[in-house]
């Protein structure tokens, strides 16, 4: 797989992810205005449990499928591709059914165990059917991504979000008269509806195009083909560490849902006040932080099969080049996003949720996690592609410990909810540093300081100066914060793009990867 192909794949997934996040704005903003911070707290509390269930049953296997399929394609074993997909499909579906049953039948026990508000029950039930449909999507996405066919995954992401917005918001409006708990639960069902439509699209695409996806004449069927047991063992060996890593990532969010309310209560807040602060963190700050992370997640999804293919051919030069390119593009996207979100935190919150809404102070600090999460994701994908699948798990576990310690002690101080934010930043910073150290030890990866650090920092600095100037000047003369915010964002994007071109941050062959 050429550099061009894997970067174009990341670009396609990134654009689709950004589109999905943009559509998500039409979910979170009206929902926030409908059920307010308390309702967003009820809506957000079950999500860490939901994502952990997805991690346990679903997330690791599609990544393993993607890696195995790319390895089979690298040696021309398309028969192996079909066997891997067929076997993994039924395993993933079975685990999805298990996760749905766990959430549906265990909702009341979860609420009792974690001492959540009783109204959270409806949100858990609304989410409980989603894992089954997500499992179908995950199986197909692993198949297509392993073959470096990103269009189906991209389309399913958009379709999933459209279904979530229309069904989730629509049902929330229908049930608001019955109470905030019912409305939050109805909104949660949007995740199930979105997953259903996304799975339906992928199934339709596969059935219609499966004969045209691959030219069978280009592939050979190996006589010494892997049996079912060998494929299952390989899937499990790859999936377990990826799954554990995904669980630990979800634990980062679960820690907040467990620690934040209790520690804020000990710090003097009421239960309602603690729920409101948690709603501001998850409903506003985390939502906005996740927007630029769509590109890093896309890069990570594209890097695993790309690095795996180079590694399977023992082509260290190609592997290092792809790793360097992945890190460089991650820095180019994450650094300006970090600074831009931090500088315009409150104006962006006011633009999206209203002038009187709080949460900008949380986003101003949380924005710095964009850089460290993005780098941690990219470096994790490089290690996974190199078959070092357990190393990121160890490093993420260390990051979780760092997060727990810092959050626990800071939440009861004057930092309150910001203590959880600082804990998250320190946790992901630790993961990124440890991952990079391991890669350097394994392949002697050298980072071109000028290309990866100096140029992005210079371009981001110019962008930041222009953003601050345009915002202050526009607000002073127009007296309209929303317009000043939009103008400063547009000018910041244009100025950053201009500096990229002037400094040749993207080499000619890299530009062709995106735009040819």
UniProtKB/TrEMBL annotation:
The chain crosses the membrane at residues 7-27, 47-66, 87-114, 120-140, 161-176, 182-207, 235-255, 287-308, 329-353, 365-383, 395-411, 417-437, 457-476, 482-506. It is a multi-pass membrane protein. Keywords: Cell membrane, Membrane, Transmembrane, Transmembrane helix. GO terms for cellular component: plasma membrane. It is found in: Cell membrane. The keyword Plastid does not apply. The keyword Transmembrane applies. It comes from the Bacteria. It holds the Pfam family Polysacc_synt. This is Stage V sporulation protein B. It comes from Anaerovirgula multivorans. The lineage of its organism: Bacteria, Bacillati, Bacillota, Clostridia, Peptostreptococcales.
